[in-house]
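Notebook entry, cofactor series.
This is the third protein in the set we're modelling with a bound small molecule. For this one the ligand is zinc ion. I'm keeping the input format identical across the series so the outputs can be compared line by line later. Sequence and SMILES below, as received.
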Amino acid sequence: MIRLRAKEMENMQIQHNNEIITIYIIRSRRKTACLRILPDGRAEVRGPKLMSDAFVREFVQAKADWILKKRREAAEYQSKKRIHTYQSGDVFLYLGMEYVLSIKAAGRKRMELAKKEEERLLLLYTVSFETKGIEKQIKEWYKKQAEEYITKQVEYYAQMIPGKYESITMENRKGRWGSCSSKGGLTFNWRLMMAPPEIIDYVVVHELCHLEHMDHSPSYWRAVESVLPDYKLRKEWLKENGISLNL
Ligand SMILES: [Zn+2]
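Returned structure with ligand:
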């Protein structure tokens, strides 16, 4: 796919209920017109080369309420994203709980979770207080926790799910929580360590069930459901809150 640079992208504005909707128009060899809302809230119309501006205007106007609703949902979703400073006081999620970062000087790097009165702390010992280094140390720590924790969960659930996995790899790919290759290679996003345990279990079971069913067919979902009867709730949580598991 070739991406158009912003300045080459044609756009059009329409007004609806006192709100301005900007529509990006992409004409190509496709035969029919379609409208979609991008994750950042932008509306995009794709259609045939000969699609007229008047057609686009009418097409969009008819769906304006839907666009505004989707746009509000996109803004709400984006607002769940956490902003990290990587300085003492910054708040991090770990297994669904909030921990306050506390950076301390030490002769060697290490990290641990602690509890002081009612506050949960993420203690970080470091040689240098440089932000980039602290960010790296935190990310490496999460990855290491994931290697231990998620591997343990895979081993547990593998006993009740048919198929055999070959390997477990931790990665950090945007928009992907896990995957299962045809050779049985499982990968998990280590940012899952920020999610509540039941959400991590859902991703583990989701991928393990792909060992036998390499698709999302009804029989695949029945296999998931036989292990986690409430999987739909967990799946929905991840869809709605996945963006908050950012570092
Ligand atoms: Zn899947």
